[in-house]
Design goal:
Blueprint lengths: L1 E4 L5 H8 L2 H5 L7 E6 L3 E7 L4 E7 L5 E4 L3 E7 L2 E6 L8 H12 L3 E3 L6
Parallel strand pairs: 5-8
Antiparallel strand pairs: 1-7, 2-3, 3-4, 5-6, 6-7
Length: about 120
């Protein structure tokens, strides 16, 4: 499952909700599908709805920041917009491969925080 959050101040609240299995079980499926693609040069975010499709590409240097935790990657598109990607949600590639790519492409804007419980 993929998540996109557009208000940075609510990220901690959403993380708290993600820790509660009943919340996830009772969340209705979204009518939009969000997909994230990582290649050597760009990160692509695609949101497909029943009526329209939005596609945004970002070079890694233009991303605001990225963080890895035990279970998620947080890709900050802008200061107040973050995509939350579960490590078990990859359809191609692995979390380790994404970590290596982000370390290489984002260096000082990428933080690995695997000490926490998130």
């Amino acid at each position: 499952m993929f998540y996109a959050v557009s208000v940075f101040s609510n990220v901690k609240k959403i993380i708290k909700l993600l820790r509660q299995p009943k919340v996830m079980e009772n969340t209705p499926p979204a009518e939009e599908k969000r997909e994230f693609f990582f290649d050597d040069d760009v990160f692509t975010f695609v949101k497909r709805g029943t009526i329209s499709e939005v596609k945004r590409e970002f070079t890694y240097q233009n991303l605001y920041a990225a963080t890895e935790t035990n279970r998620y990657f947080f890709i900050h598109l802008y200061k107040h917009t973050v995509c939350i990607i579960g490590k078990n949600d990859f359809s191609e590639g692995t979390a380790l491969q994404l970590r290596e790519l982000l370390v290489q492409k984002m260096s000082d804007k990428f933080l690995i925080d695997t000490e926490g419980s998130i």
